[in-house]
Amino acid sequence: MVASSPVVPGDDPTLLFTNAGMNQFKDVFLGFDKRPYSRATTSQKCIRAGGKHNDLDNVGYTARHQPFFEMLGNFSFGDYFKHDAISYAWELLTEKFKLPKDKLWVTVYQEDDEAYEIWNKVVGVPAERIVRIGDNKGGRYMSDNFWMMGDTGPCGPCTEIFYDHGPEIPGGPPGSPDEDGDRYIEIWNNVFMQFNRTEDGVMHPLPK
């Protein structure tokens, strides 16, 4: 368990506030720093009040947005990757927390066939509850299922897990026109840090 880093990062001029649990591990993903551990968990204090990850505009309009929160996270530095990350998430939610499996939906980045196959063939989530999310009109990688910390830095495809509260709650499944309703709520996001995006927009594979 690694302690939360300060909400005002003192060593990253690209961020005004810490907006994600991975911020303190940025140099580890980039290969500039090495920690004495290959796995970590955190409860990171975050502020999202502007920039790419901005929750401020949604405060007061939904029952689940606020600018300050603590983000739970699990991280691997050259240790486990997609197969184990997905399996660990599913095990915790269904075996430890006892969430009904038939209430859980997942999304994957449209081009991430590996994550799709893990969910479908290994975990056993039926295809009708796995949604591929493509790019927005802004261009390639501009997707809700391709995570970036900002205009530059570590990034990669992600897979999200949603809980279905049932048909009595308004809202559609992820990827649908009614996805902003309260029926399907995101409860987990596994980000697979695979690239470093530079100022010229080029995606460079990360060392590990």
Automatic annotation (TrEMBL):
E.C. number(s) listed in UniProt: 6.1.1.7
SUPFAM superfamilies tied to this protein: Class II aaRS and biotin synthetases (SSF55681)
Enzyme class name: ligase
Classification via Pfam families: tRNA-synt_2c
Species name: Tenacibaculum discolor
Classification via PROSITE patterns: AA_TRNA_LIGASE_II_ALA (PS50860)
Cofactors: Zn(2+)
Domain Alanyl-transfer RNA synthetases family profile: 1-208
A GO MF term: ATP binding
One term under GO cellular component: cytosol
InterPro entries per the UniProt record, alphabetical: aa-tRNA-synth_II/BPL/LPL, Ala-tRNA-lgiase_IIc, Ala-tRNA-synth_IIc_core, Ala-tRNA-synth_IIc_N, Ala-tRNA_ligase
Keywords, in A-Z order: Aminoacyl-tRNA synthetase, ATP-binding, Ligase, Nucleotide-binding, Protein biosynthesis, RNA-binding, tRNA-binding
Stated name of the protein: Alanine--tRNA ligase
Gene Ontology terms: biological process: alanyl-tRNA aminoacylation; negative regulation of DNA-templated transcription
UniProt family annotation: Belongs to the class-II aminoacyl-tRNA synthetase family.
